[in-house]
Amino acid sequence: MHAVSLLPALPLQGVVVSHPIRYSILSGLAGLLLLLSGCSISQTAPVQGQSIVTLPPELLETSGLLCLEQDFISFNDSGGKPVLYRFDRSGLIRARLQLSVRNSDWEAITSDGKFLYLADTGNNAGRKHRLFIYKVPLDWSDLSQPYRPERLEVLLPPDEKRQPYQHDLDFEAMVYQQGALWLISKSWQSQIPARYKISPGVKQQYLGDALPFANPGFLVTDAIFDHNQQQWWLVGYPDPRTAIWAHLSNAGFQSQIARYDHQLQLLQTKTLPTKGQVEGVCIDQDNQIWISEEGSKQSPALLMKTGLSSH
User: Fold this and answer.
1) Cα separation of 122 and 107, whole Å?
2) Residue ranges per domain, the chain?
């Protein structure tokens, strides 16, 4: 999601006012958040076990992260080129795969070991009635470009009253686990993330029932499932509508990570070693947890080894 995509029609928590006054207030708040989001936020210096790598300008709006052997795969979010990037731990791009589909709002990526699943599921404004997931071979060597991926369509329940940033059907995280894809909601309205089961073998399906996680205290921007420990890891940041003073005090997004057991019960929450906007998380073959951070006009996108282990 764009750093400035929080701006349109932000609701004030607990305040009910008439429309003219409301939009006057929101306009001022939007302007302030625009100013803050454009400011460079100083980073915390890495400590032992951590590392920070600057990603190339091509990945300024990186959104979603997949660990693959010693490399990573990521992409840009809404409005970006429909390209997947494979890069190493120094940030060097080693391969690109252009897709013949539109990047409406790409948000997450996961894999079953043979295919990649790319989630075009961003829905901050709440206007979408369907979401798309693209299936791409993990091996790009014999693919012609632009590659046309297989498409899965997820139909959302009809709701004419869904308002921007005031609903729970925005999805920035997706995980492959036990033969199924799981979309995880950002949950602007309830503030409680939930997962929804998607069958990777069904080309069109309705969004099913929500299975809620225990509340981590932040909006979820990505997730990963550790198959060895049978645990879920979720990353994100507190709702900027209620954490504006953190930005004013240069505390940044206060990004966090939460660990859950297989029954979705919260085991641990930790603050991540960054002040930026964390949009991706993955676990490498050595069980180390990595995150990616979206950049801005003033600050580059970053790849960060957190110093945390899934074991």
Assistant:
1) 6
2) 19-309
